[in-house]
Amino acid sequence: MKKIVFILFLFPLTIHGLDISLGLKIGYKPTYYLTSVIQTTPLFQLTANSAVENLFQSLNYGVILDFTYFRLDIEHESTFRMITYKNIEDESILYPVINNYFSTNIYNQALTSTFSVSLMFKYPIQLLSVHFWPAIGIKFSNLYYLDKLGSGSNEINESTGYIYYDFYVFSGFGCDIDLAPGFSLVPSILIGYNLTPWTKNVVYTDESYYGYQFTFEIGLLYQL
User: Fold this and answer.
1) What is the pTM of this model?
2) What percent of the chain has pLDDT over 90?
3) Residue 81 is part of which domain span?
């Protein structure tokens, strides 16, 4: 597996005639997760439906290595706010709704730190001094710091069974705008689907979950 990843990253270097550019980027990443659980108690025929939605608001910065049709991004991402919505509803055959509970928690002091590597495949279409490009790609991210309550301590604990890495597939579009000889401005909009949104390594059959990440970025490239 490591050899395959290494070959994928080095493949652009084997193609002649590509423009190679190096640059920096910054961006805003809202990330959304939904976990839905249905639990049934046979004795009382009681069903509990619960849905938990998490919205992470993050800023990111990183390095871009661009090969015209391929792009490698290495970045750091920090969350500055987390919003949690909970909706729990209990019902049975005797009573349609026994309890309906809804709550919203906003953690303004929440802090997470994530390291990510992504590989993007794009097809540039030139129009005057602008190169528009649709793109698809894959991304690996690893959460290495979590301080949801703002206590100043890292709450990550591998022994709890939680998974702190994610794999994404994403698509979107962007453009390279020529500013001066060798320099270009690179705005982009991407949407990613999380292939590993469940945070536990034990998955229940009565549970559904998914996650999305939206990316709004702008970068500055210099052609080498």
Assistant:
1) 0.74
2) 40
3) 22-223
